[in-house]
Amino acid sequence: MSIYENIKTACKKSEISISALENRLGFSRSSICKWDTNTPGVDKVKAVADILGVTVDDLLADTQDDG
């Protein structure tokens, strides 16, 4: 999965919308969805991880099954 998909999954578990997450962090609207094509700074990824109660590694993990 991409970082965006991992964030989307974590948001569902935390019962927060991506829009609400962006607002809480002071990010511009739809900025997180652009992370599929643009690489975010580590400080932004860390801020998202902190709010969602996950690790940066969780957000960066490639969870696609090779088999």
Automatic annotation (TrEMBL):
PROSITE patterns for this protein: HTH_CROC1
HTH cro/C1-type domain residues: 7-59
TM annotation in the entry: none
Protein name: Helix-turn-helix domain-containing protein
Organism expressing this protein natively: Dorea ammoniilytica
Lineage of origin: Bacteria, Bacillati, Bacillota, Clostridia, Lachnospirales
